[in-house]
Amino acid sequence: MTNVKYFHLGQFFSLRALLSTFFGAGLVAVTEFLLPWLGILQAETLWNWITPITITFTLAIIFVSCAMAKNVVASILIGAAAVLSFYNPYETVELGLAALLIIFIVTAFFAGFFASIEMTGRTGLLLIGIVFGLQGFIGSGVSIFLSLQEAQTDFHNNSVRISFGEFINNVPVWDTIVAVFSLIFMIIFIIISRKIVTKQLNGKKFEIIGQIIILLSIIGALAFIVLSNTIFDYATAVSIFGETNTQFLNEMFSKVPNGSFMAITGLNGLYILPIVGFGIGIGLAFITYQRAEGTSGKIRYNFEGPFFILNLVPFLIICAYSYPLQNLFEGGYFYLESATWFPIFTEFTNLLLINLLLAYVIFKIITIIKLIAKK
Asked: H or E element: which one contains 119?
């Protein structure tokens, strides 16, 4: 089907969308419930290197199935299947229900959306600049807030080394650098997107360069995380976050009642996804230039669409569980302590990068199969 429209409800009944939804929903039930329930995804040998303790591949399945379905109904159904399949070690979702909706529904919606929409190369470059520039502002903005709250103190008081955006002479120097770089990145792509370029390109040189940059960005970030972290246990987590906040983290990420967590020591953990985003954005720019034959042709990002999804999800989680919002609920509700924001971004970053790498491999395999089938 060439005339793909993401919000066309009738296209949900196309063979492509129906099959993608069926297999996607079935696979997320396996990865999100069956495998964690059986404890298959818990590899103790990895715990000294990276967390979460239970690595699930639900996000990768969502990326692949939603990118193939290219329909809003399919995306919502696949996301809903992941929510309903969620395995919880505490056998309750009272604490994390809103977070589940954010993680799976938001991810599924935007993964399908960015894979489906057709645009000119100019619009694609503008989208890259705005999306990844804003994600840099999210990282630096949250980091400034945590520094003002002195959230790192709870870690240091419990002998957990963690990097943070410290103030130097009352100036958030590192956060400002990230924010300024994000602004420059955004401005550059806005300027580039205004230029109309039409060029006949032979071969796939720019496409290959872009794919390599994306792959190296993901692998490089994972390597850095593995080599620059410290793992702390459940008892330490309770001392830092409190029992309720620790239970929330266990529900969302560890999927065991006494999970371990990670603190990044070599670089503020809130900067990792923005930096990865800058690399992915540059890679997508090369791909855009190739597919749009400059900037004036039409493109659809297809399998590369889900790579736009980075730190929006953890940002929405901390907003949804902030004290002002939770205080609006009658009878009160629990909110996330500011120190908890660090592991939310860290654990989600680790999980997302692992799933992006897996999705990347799956996308390449599918592409190769398609090329062989055409021949």
From this structure: strand 118-120
Judged by phi (left if over 0) then psi (alpha if -120 to 50, else beta), residue 237 lies in alpha
Q: Long-range CB contacts (< 8 A, 24+ apart) of 168-172?
A: 172/143, 172/144, 172/147
CB 268 within 8 A of CB 163: yes
Mutual orientation of helices 272-291 and 173-193 as an angle, nearest 10°? 10
Torsion-angle region of residue 185: left (phi > 0), alpha (psi -120 to 50) or beta?
alpha
pLDDT in tens, 120-152: 999 999 999 999 999 999 999 999 999 999 999
Tokens found for residue 313: 């999800």
CB atoms within 10 A of CB 171: 9
The reported pTM is 0.94
How far from 202 is each of 193, 269, 372, CA to CA, in Å?
A: 22, 41, 20
Q: What is the pLDDT of residues 173-203, one digit of tens each?
A: 999 999 999 999 999 999 999 988 887 777 7
